[in-house]
Structure formats: structure tokens, C-alpha cells
Amino acid sequence: MASKSHAGRGEVAFAGTLAAIIYFVATAIGHGNPLTGSSQLYGDFSNQYIGLMNFLHQVVLGRADAAYSFGSGLGGGMIADWAYYLLSPFNLLAMPFGPAAMPDVVYLIICLKVACAAAAFDWLARQRWTRLNPALRLTLALGYALMGYVMIYQREFMWLDALVFLPLIIGGLLRVLAGRSVALYTVSLAVMLVANYYVGFMICVFLPIFALYHLYAEQTELTGVVTLKRLGRFIWASLLAALSASIVLVPTFASLLGGKLGVNTGQPILPTTTHPLPVFSRLLIGAVDDHIDLHPGALSLPTLYVSGLLLISALLFFTLRRIAGRQKIGAALVFAFFLIVGFAPKLYLLMHGGANPVGYPYRYAFLIGFWLVYLAGDTLLAASERRLPRNAVFSAAGIALVFTVYLLLRRSALDASAWRILLTGLLWLAACFVLLMAATRWRRYWAVAALGLVVLDLGINAAMITSQKRTASMSDYRQYARQMRGLTNAIKADAGTNPQPYRVGSNLMRGIDRGDGLTYSYASASIFSSNLAKGTPALMRLLGQPSAEYYIQYSNGTALTDAIFGMDYLIGTTRDGKQENARHAAQVFGYRHDLVGKKVTTSGRETVYANPLAAPLAFVLPGETGAKLLGGDSLNNQSRILQSWSGDHAALTKPVKIAAPRVSYHGRRYTWTLPAATARQYVQLAPAYFAKHTHMRLNGKRVQIFPGYSTPVLLGVGKHAQAVKLTVTFKHKQKAALPPVTAAVIREAQLRRTVAKLQQGALHFSTRLGSHMVATATTTKSATVMTTIPADSGWHVKVDGKRVSTGKGLRGIFMTVPIQEAGKHTVQFDYHVPYWRLGVLMTLLGIALIVLVTHLDFLKNRGAHRRQLV
């Protein structure tokens, strides 16, 4: 018995090791392996996840607060980010490493997840197909761990936990449905929900389908009463797992209700044709998903690639004589479920947690891949026992040949080249040949041949998919990391021991990564996150900042927004917005040549300015909490906010008269000339000027606008003794009239007076930003403290030791605090994760119940064993 156990562990370990080696080599060939001189810095991996992984590192070092971060946009609770991005047990490996090494470490985490996925499926294969040749179990494990889904979503690495835990969950579920212990099922499902609730939810939707299939198709000997009992056991075991994960699920759900779940993400873009050709594109080797940056315009469909051998084996499942008819019907109904979900908008949204995916559609496709491999296991077992109908294999080979020719003739309708179709067809025919080997004199070699074919097939597929992902340079990344570390350290040194909070603004970033505040631990106004408070993006758009429900970006700030958001430090650059390094370091969006103030430090072409005209994070309000803001009127909206807060309604800007543009270059180039200015001025352009192929220059420098802009942009220039020239060149001649270009000069003296009124009432903090802040406020009467902290139910505020109810100002976005009488007051801000304590209590209850139920199961099984002995 011990030797079998050791052999089993050795096989599982070998499956994981082999999968990791294939992935490592394939990504090296496909130029996606940072350990061999390539890079994984592409898409969300580069622009979102690396920043959050660096936040994890900052928390470990004690430089960031785990519960709340002012580096997340203007500030936000982090529980939903932890639940979505950071709670995977694999992320423990990243904790000791800083920004420079983080891409390498995350790549190793991906390798480890691929290895564990293969090991987990091999373990499941040993439980389900005990008589199957170990080489064939390895074949199944590799097909599962290196399926097309994994390679496409390798950079969405937090979703890969689903592939690691799904085989364990299914293995535990099979035990539950057999009337055995619920421990493995409840624990593995609970861990999955904690590691990533998003894909965990998709698994939860699939589990009832699988349970019904198993009870209907594979446990035909059970009576109706026993079947209902087993089904009930599955239900309460699932609820027990969810209860045990409540420490994360409850506060996360509460956070999402105030953010993502309250946002209308629109209807999904699903296939509008029933023609099968687009579906067939997903079956070909090297098929990529329809991400917004890869194959725009291609029809969005799930990628189903699990190798030619396993795909054909899954289809041959329905020809097996040893498989009962109801089992085939049940398997077909599971496929029907996936088909219906893929074409029904409401069910599609349900599978994605109620939110329409932005890029990367059909994120639950790993479940389809699992089902294909699961059915293929029965076919491989039948082949190894000489029970696979040879006629069915010959028919499959003939269909594959005809199908390959058909796809070649119709390849114009496919997202595939001729050689990809030919290679796929060749692999299909090779798969049929290998299956036929099981009934020939070469039978002893067929299992190894099957394994070798799948290794070759999946290795080529992995390399091809990886090579289609554009990547940024690791050297550029590390250079940017060094520079930002130097700049932010200089800011922290300038701030010294002064506990007053400060924010940092910059239109310089790496690629379109909006997470520098998280990476380098400073308060910012930019973030890419699925968990934004739903009011903040709307406010930012009204102020001329690019934003959507899942990101805000402070690229085109002005002297007025710098004041509003308390940007005490600003990073300026002499670079222009050229496209050559669009995916590399030091990319510039907008135009901020209006920066003034003390120069804190200079590094290369970047300079840090200390901004003297920044409003405090919190101040006793001399005016009103809100202002009427109008769409398309960004600069005036900014003025209205400062005027309402200060109570001083004197104009902060002065319009600049601009003559009609000079049109040249066949009606494609428009040039405006602005008069010389004695103060900072801002040019405002409507979104019509930011078309995809528009080229814009201001004073000879290229201007690049942050992608996805849907609001007027303000471009800032400083004092100029000479005229300012703005040139916009369109790809095509403009036939319709263009919106006017406007400009205004800042009235510097009035801006100083306005900000001084706000600074006069500043709260004086004894601690800096975090989830616990203490400040003093002096009032001459009952007053309101205005903050630029986004309102969140997690904030608990005490004034002079007494809890007060906070309010909301400026369109309900920012938190306000009432003070009832004159004098000097202590104001304490504490952030508690909403419903955290309730989640902890529920988890403790769930764990206790799991221990109790497991103990009762143990006693029951031991008693049954003793009765058998008697």
C-alpha cells in the first residue's frame, strides 16, 4: 500500500513538473519568458496586476495599509481588490520582492499554477480512471493544464487558480455524491472562493450541472430517495464551503454593491450568426481570444483547444459501447448548457457575476475545456482496453481530412492562416493514428505515443499563442522602476516628518499602468480597478479626466484640479507623446507644461515640483459643499468647485480669444494660434480631435491623449512671450464642421487667494494617510469639515471622542464631517472593512461545522467498517 501511495505522489509530481517544463520552453520560444530574456509585460498583466502585486509587497514592508489605500485613485477600501487579485495562496511567493523583480516572480507563479493544475488533474485521473495507463493520465493532465484557455489567460494569472482547484473540488464532489466525507469538497471549494471569488463563482454555477449529470448518468443503481439525499448532501456541503469563505465573501460583496455591482456594464456582445465557421476558428492550433488589443473585429467566441487528440477523444466518447445511453445523453446536455449560456445574454452575464466583460469574453471557457478532457478520459480508457470502435476512429479520421480541406477552402471566413489549418489537420490525423495503435501490434507503444503527440501539440500551441502577445521590454520596465523609486523617495524626503497628507500627480506612466500609487506607496488620483466607487469616475469626467467605471486617470490636470485634489507634488516631463514607445516605459499623456513651484528633484527628463496651491485633504469649509457641474464644460466646472468651497465667487480664469483655424494639407490639418500669455493657460479640445489616427502638436511637441477619452481635454502651457501654436492633423479630410477650440488663462492672484482660504482651515494631522488618522480642527462656530476622501461606509469618524455621522459633498462623492461648536477639536478617522466582523464569525462557524461533520463522517465510516468485520 505504501509503495502505491509513493508511486501515486511521484506520478502527480511528475505531471506538474512536465507541464511546467513545457510551459517554460514554449514561452521562451514565444518570447514571453522573462527568465530567458523575454517579457510577459503585456495587457492587464503589465497595466494592472503588477501594480497590485507590488502593493502586496508594500503591505508586507509596512509601507501601505492593507485595508485602505490612498494610492487607489483618490482613495478606496481594498478588500475587493484583495479578494479579486491578491488572496491566492500562490501570491505568498511574491511578498518579499519589490518592483524590479516582480514580473519575474509573477512569471514563476504562473509556472507553478500550471504545474499544480496538471498535478491536480492527474490526481483526479488516478481517482476516476484507476486502470488507465500512467502515460495516458499524464496526457489528460497536460491537456487540461495547457489548454488554450490557460495560454490566452496566462497573464490574467489570478484566474488560473480555478484550474488548480477545480479537479480537487470535482474529486471531493464525487466523494460527497458517493456518500463519503465532505471534507475535501468543502475545504477546496472554500479555498477557491477565497483565492478568487470571480472564477470561484463560475465553478459554483457549474457544480450543480456536474452533480446532476453524475447522479443521473453514473449512479443509476441508486434509488430515488438515496439520490435526493445525496443531492441534499451536496447542497449543504456547498453552503458550508461558502460559509467558511465568508471572511472574504461577505465584506467583498458589500464593497461590490457600492461599486461594480451598481454599475450598468451594458449587454454583452455575443455572436449574431449561427454559422459554424467562427466557432471552428477556436478549435485550430494557435487560436487567440478576441481581446481588444489583439484581433479587433474578430468574432468573440470561447477558445476550446485541448489538443487534437483529446478533442477527438471527447467526441468519440459518444461512440463508446461501454457507455450507457443515459450517460451519453447527460454528457450532451452538459454541452447544451454551455451552448445556451454562450448565446443567451442573461445567462452569459450570470456566468460572469452579472458584469459584462471588458475584453477577454467567455472567461468561463476553462469549464468547457475541463469537460472535454473529462470525457476524453473515458475514451482513452476504452482504447487502452480495446473497446474503442475502430470504425468510429476511421470515420473521425475521414471527417478530419474532409473538414481540413473545407476549412482551407473557406479560410477567408476564419481567423486563421492556411498553414495553421494544415498543421491542425495533420495533428487531427496523427491523433486518429495513435488511437488506432491501441488495437494493433504496436499497442505497447500507443500510450507513450499519445503522450508525445500531446506534448508536441500543446507545446506548439503555447508557443504560437504567446508569440502573438506584444510585450514591453524588461530593461525599460526596470529603468522606469528605478527612476520612479528615486522620484518618490525625493518627495518623501521633502515631506520629511511633517504628518500632513499629500498627493502626487503625474501624466508620465509606464505604458498605461495607472497603479504607480500602489507600487511606490503614495497617494494618487489614478487607478485601474474593477472595484471603484461608482460616483468617482463621473466626477472625474466632468473635470476633464479620462475615466470609466473601472478606471480613473489623472493625465490632464490643471492648476485648478491640482488645487481641488490636493496635489502637493507634481511630476513634469520634457518628453512628448510619441507613439514609438507606446508599450514601454515613460509614456506621456496630455500636456502639462504649466507646472510651477519649487523643484524638488530632477531625474533624466523628469522634474518633481512642489505645488504651493494645493487644497488640504481636509479643511473647515468656508463655503458650500457642492457646485453645479455641467457636462462638456471642464474648466468652468473646476472653477465652480473652488468657488463654492471657498465662498469666493470671483472668476478664476479669463477666456482667450482664438481666431478661426488655418486649414491646410488637403483639408486635414488645422492650426490655431493663441496670443502670448503672461500666466498659465489651458487649451480645451472636444473629443472629436482625439480620433484614432489624429496627430496633435502643441508648440512643436507631439501630444498623446489617454485612450478611451470621452470628455473634453485641457492642455496646459506656461507663460509665453510668443504665440502658442496648436496643430491637429486628421487621417481624412473633415467634411463636417468641427467643434470650437477654446482657451483660458488662469488668474493666478485670485487662485492664490481662493486656495489660501481653504488652507487657512486645514486640519492638522498627527498621522499620515492610512486607515487610522488623527487631526485637529479649529472652528469659530459650528461648521463642516470638507474632505477629498471618497465617501465610504467603512469610515468611522469621531469628533472629540464622540462618534458622528458623516455626510457627502460634491455630488455625493466626498466625505464631510459635522462639527457642532466653536473651539479646538480632535477629529479621528478610522476605516473598518464593512461587515468584516460578521464575515469572521461566519467563517469560524463554517470551520467548526466542517470539523464536526468530518468527525461524524469518520465515526460513521469506522462503525460501518467494524460491522463489516463482524
TrEMBL record:
The keyword Transmembrane applies. Pfam families: YfhO. The keyword Transcription regulation does not apply. The chain crosses the membrane at residues 12-29, 82-99, 105-123, 135-152, 158-177, 189-214, 234-257, 299-318, 330-350, 362-383, 392-409, 421-438, 445-465, 835-859. Keywords: Membrane, Transmembrane, Transmembrane helix. PANTHER family: INTEGRAL MEMBRANE PROTEIN, INTEGRAL MEMBRANE PROTEIN-RELATED. This is YfhO family protein. It comes from Lacticaseibacillus pabuli.
